[in-house]
Design goal:
Layout: H1 2-18, E1 20-29, E2 39-42, E3 47-50, E4 56-63, E5 65-72, E6 79-85, E7 90-95, E8 119-124, H2 125-131, H3 137-140, E9 147-151, E10 160-164, E11 172-176, E12 179-180, E13 201-208, E14 222-228, E15 236-244, E16 248-256, E17 264-275, E18 284-296, E19 300-314, E20 320-321, E21 340-355, E22 360-383, E23 392-394, E24 397-399, E25 401-424, E26 430-452, E27 463-485, E28 488-506, E29 515-533, E30 536-547, H4 551-555, H5 559-562, E31 567-580, E32 583-604, E33 610-630, E34 635-657, E35 664-674, E36 681-689, E37 695-704, E38 707-708, E39 718-719, E40 722-733, E41 740-748, E42 759-767, E43 774-782, E44 789-797
Family: Belongs to the TonB-dependent receptor family.
Membrane topology: Multi-pass membrane protein
Pfam family, one: Plug
């Protein structure tokens, strides 16, 4: 009987094996291009696959029988077909572009295409997802060309930032679905107010240089054009959890209805991120949500996005003094338990895009952003006069100083609308677009003393400063591409931008800052693209950008006495791009000439605050190389290299002098010095290895050359060059009970390098030991990044 049962078992196994097949195939576009990342599903079985870099897919061990095969890819019509196994084991699927109006047109007006003569890169959702374990977007974009990213807390969570071609966040234009994101006054983008936003991003286009006309702050070094999640054809659910060093935790849940009646779709995301930070007490408690719903007709799309972020971040703004780097790299001078930044920001976007006729498309959006919050500070032995308060009498003592806890508030509204109208001629030679926007910022700035060591005459919540700023920003542009000959395209772009900016009230230094300014800017751009053959093209362009000063340039420099000048940039880009099967590469040369660039010089205003001043001439000259090559089906190598020269023709430094009986400032003139925070070399290299199906191992390397902390090119005020290497392991499977299950392990800085990508400096004269002498003291502060650390994540998609 035992032998009989064994024989029966082997027989059943043999029958089961005999009745199973492997379904294989390749997914291509109607023009024959292989499509990576297409979803392939056998409906009703829970079995599926995703096409690889060559468009190939495979579903193993499928029991023989009849099935419905469905293949879908964003922007293409879904393919559905009845198949029978084992008769149909090899498939070649061709997908045709979607006849429905796609959401790509939402960002069309602010984006460059392959016919636009500008330098740009695109980061897709799949690229973002590989690294997205809770860190902010600047960290996720670290390996793109000419980018240097950094984090105050040292671990990529909390306050983060990036520079592109040496330009900081205040000079990088950011739009979300074509809607301005930069703060209207500081021009910065505070990613900490948008926790886990990367989980709701479909793709990002990074334009380096002036780029094309857009909305919001002027592009003065680069632009980030972000498109949020687009509709999904099928219903889904997703749970994503990660944890890592420094008690970092991320929890995210995401759901979507798919297309309902082929017309409606709704999506939602809820996220929570927390971290203790690498720097002492540099903790973060971040929460966010993203809601989206839309109507998708054949010729019209109406979509509503609502997203919000709330952050409570312990301050790590002060940095680590240079003399503590060797002994206490995690030093934080703040010890008060509520020394936090507490801010919330809500975004509302109502978007329309439509096909008006065979030749005309339209896009428009209304938006509203509401931000409010404060940062709280314990101020030991602070001057009461700084708050407009009289001395406090306690017994027989008159106190002009005491311990104080203050809050500085910002309560602002930003709203407006953007639009674009696109004309495409019947023969396809003319592609013309007219667009623009009108936006208003209305912000209240005020401060409160919430505690004093001894009671004074003020009450809690009394405002020791209170001022309001209103800024109106209008722009209109027209741009177009004309095919002048076979593969030769002419490009033109003309933008007019007007800014009305007014202030009223008392600033935090107790000065009346009331005043108003108006700017009118004309920003032309011209160029051409020559497509030599399919996948090969040359381009060249000349562009002009003008930029108004930021809030502090006005509030620190009284408008009636010393109004700062606007900045001007003239940008030349020349490049060559090649896209082939299994490889791509590009090379571009750029020249960015600045007039009246605003920089810190050390000069003081009438109340002792440091102000920025215009420097007449400065420039950036560089070359950028970017390439990717599939060495074999298992190995892919990609990388980029940026070499640049960044100079200021003449720069005056103002040094505080405390060596004499009276305070003064000494002026030193420098010529042909490097622009601060502008490394001459930035490089990245990524090696991907796929030993077996569903497993990917990646080695990510980043090199950043030395940078100066100010514009004096002083070797004692410098950030050292650094090289870091990260290791990423990704394992994705499609078990029957879920659509996809993905495990990710990211080990950052595997060689435990000690490095600092950001910092600041100041210098001053003090008396020396000799009679009447003096010596120069330089104090540098740095933002150290963590040594070897890890993040691990589990993503399940239903």
């Amino acid at each position: 009987m035992k032998k009989l049962l064994i024989l029966l078992a082997f027989g059943l196994v043999g029958i089961a094996a005999f009745g199973q097949s492997n379904l294989r195939g390749i997914v291509k576009s109607s023009t024959g291009e292989e499509l990576e990342g297409a979803n392939v599903i056998l409906l009703g079985t829970g079995r599926g696959s995703t096409s690889d870099l060559q468009g190939n897919f495979q579903i193993r061990n499928v029991p023989d029988g009849n099935y419905t095969l469905r293949v879908s890819y964003l922007g293409f019509e879904s393919f559905t077909n009845e198949i029978s196994l084992p008769d149909s084991e090899l498939f070649e699927v061709f997908l045709t572009p979607s006849s429905l109006l796609t959401e790509e047109f939402i960002v069309y007006a602010t984006r460059a295409s392959d016919k636009t003569p500008t330098t740009f890169s695109k980061v897709d959702k799949s690229d973002i997802a590989k690294l997205n374990l809770g860190q902010d977007l600047p960290i996720l974009l670290n390996f793109t060309p000419s980018v240097v990213s950094f984090s105050d807390a040292g671990a990529g969570v909390g306050y983060t930032g990036l520079r592109i071609r040496g330009s900081d966040q205040t000079r990088i234009n950011v739009t979300v679905n074509g809607i301005p994101l930069n703060d209207a006054e500081s021009h910065g983008v505070f990613w900490v107010n948008m926790p886990d936003f990367a989980s709701s991003v479909d793709n990002i286009q990074i334009q380096r240089g002036v780029g094309t006309s857009t909305n919001g702050a002027a592009t003065f070094g680069a632009s980030l054009n972000i498109q949020t999640d687009t509709k999904q054809d099928e219903a889904f659910g997703e749970i994503d959890n990660s944890f890592g060093s420094f008690n970092t935790r991320r929890h995210m849940v995401k759901v979507g209805t798919g297309l309902i009646n082929n017309k409606w779709a709704f999506d939602a995301r809820l996220s929570q991120i927390s971290s203790d930070g690498y720097i002492d007490r540099a903790s973060s408690d971040l929460k966010s949500y993203f809601l989206s719903g839309g109507y998708y007709g054949e010729k019209h799309v109406v979509k509503l996005n609502v997203f919000s972020g709330a952050e409570v971040t312990y301050q790590a703004w002060e940095g680590v003094p240079e003399d503590l780097l060797a002994t206490n790299r995690t030093f934080n001078p703040y010890t008060y338990d509520n020394q936090v930044d507490d801010y919330k920001q809500d975004h509302y976007q109502l978007i329309y895009t439509g096909q008006l006729s065979d030749n005309w498309k339209a896009n428009g959006a209304l938006h509203y952003t509401y931000g409010r919050g404060f940062f709280e500070q314990f101020r030991p032995n602070d001057r009461l006069s700084s708050y407009g308060l009289p001395p406090v009498v306690v017994g027989d003592s008159t106190l002009s100083r005491m311990d104080i806890i203050r809050r500085r508030w910002l309560d602002n509204d930003f709203y407006g609308g953007v639009f674009s109208l696109n004309y495409l001629s019947d023969d396809g030679k003319w592609d013309v677009l007219v667009g623009g926007g009108a936006n208003r910022y209305d912000g209240d700035h005020f401060g409160e003393i919430i505690w004093m060591q001894y009671a004074g005459t003020n009450n809690i919540r009394d405002r020791y400063y209170d001022n309001r700023a209103v800024k109106d920003d209008y722009n209109i542009y027209t741009k177009g591409t004309f095919e002048a000959g076979r593969g030769f395209y002419l490009f033109g772009d003309l933008q007019w931008r007007k800014i009305d900016y007014s202030f009223s009230g008392i600033n935090n230094d107790q000065r009346d800052i009331s005043g108003e300014v108006t700017y009118n800017f004309f920003n032309p751009k011209f160029g051409f693209t020559y497509q030599i053959q399919e996948g090969k093209s040359w381009y060249a362009s000349y562009a002009v950008a003008n930029r108004e000063p930021v809030r502090r340039d006005f509030t620190d420099s009284p408008i009636v006495d010393r109004a700062p000048k606007p900045e001007n940039l003239q940008n030349v880009e020349v490049g060559y791009k090649v896209q082939g099967r299994g490889f791509s590469y590009s090379a571009n040369l750029y020249y960015m000439k600045y007039r009246d660039q605003l920089v810190l010089t050390g000069q003081l205003n009438d109340v002792g605050a440091y102000v920025r001043d215009n420097v007449e001439n400065s420039y950036r000259l560089g070359v950028e190389l970017d390439a990717a090559y599939m060495l074999s089906p298992k190995f892919t190598l990609g990388g980029n290299l940026a070499l640049s020269r960044n100079k200021i023709a003449e720069f005056q430094e103002y040094l505080d002098d405390y060596s004499g009986s009276d305070f003064s400032q000494e002026v030193i003139t420098y010529t042909d010095t490097d622009i601060a925070f502008s490394p001459n070399v930035v490089a990245a290299a990524i090696l991907d290895y796929r030993p077996i199906k569903n497993i990917e191992i990646s080695l990510l390397n980043k090199y950043v050359g030395s940078q100066y902390l100010d514009n004096t090119q002083n070797e004692d005020r410098k950030l050292n060059a650094f090289w870091t290497s990260d290791l990423r392991l990704n394992y994705a499977i499609r078990p029957r009970f879920v659509k996809n299950l993905e495990l990710t392990l990211l080990i950052n800085n595997i060689f435990n390098q000690l490095y600092e990508p950001n910092g600041y400096t100041f210098s001053y004269f003090v008396p020396s030991e000799g009679a009447g002498g003096r010596e120069l003291v330089t104090e540098n502060f740095f933002y150290p990044q963590a040594g070897t650390n890890f993040l691990a994540g589990l993503k399940v998609r239903f």
